[in-house]
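hiii, so i know i said id send this last week but things got crazy w the move. better late than never?? heres the sequnce for the chain we talked about at the cafe, plus the structure i predicted for it. fair warning i was half asleep when i ran it
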Amino acid sequence: MTATADFQTYSRFRPQKLEPITALRAFRRLIRDKEDTAQVFEIMRALSGGSIARGYNRMLGTMEGGRQAFLREELAHKLDDPVWLSQFPAGSVGGAYREFREARGFTAEGLADEARKVAPLADAPHPVIWYSRRLRDIHDIWHVLTGYGTDALGEACVVSFSYGQTRNLGFAFIGWGAAREIQREVRTVPARRAVWQAYRNGKAARWLPGLDYEALFEQPLDQVRDRLNIRPATVYQTVPAEVLAGLKLRA
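okay and structure toks below
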């Protein structure tokens, strides 16, 4: 260590303080434009509290989770590698993920860019911040595992599932708030029941953040869902595709 070392290096790492007013303002911007993904990260930043640190510590409590934490791989690098993704057969988790992102034009780096707009330390070399990046990068994998789409209700359900997994209040706020707005927009859509089921499915499933996702991609999707106890999204699946596509969160 040199004499010119930045003494901020020794600043204590502290959980984000809860900022409910900031979250509410960001949510209002989000419902005006559901494609404004940066507002999702603003809500998560405002309401994550100590959940990220707790999740990282939970990883350390299992052999596989601890191995992943030790390796500290950046999943986004793999997920944006078309050569790596091309090796997985149809019907596997990796094959389903490849089809999911190709159909929508999504990239892991694109999601990371949205996070950086509101979280300047998103790329910091700290284990707890690495874990927050991991949660960001596996979001679309959880879409594939759970069967929820990227329409407004599907996103609300995935974040509700994520709350059941992580206990991060940001997920609960977005999921329940979006369900309320969807129900106001189209009363016949069972949005509240769908997100409640998604939350319960998240609680019932095995804990997913600590998995070896590279190994998981090689395995058949149906078998993985069974092994991880990821229950079917039966309420969400009752909503016709054309209704889901028409949801705009206009309320």
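btw The chain is about 65% helix and 0% strand. thought thatd interest u
miss u guys!!
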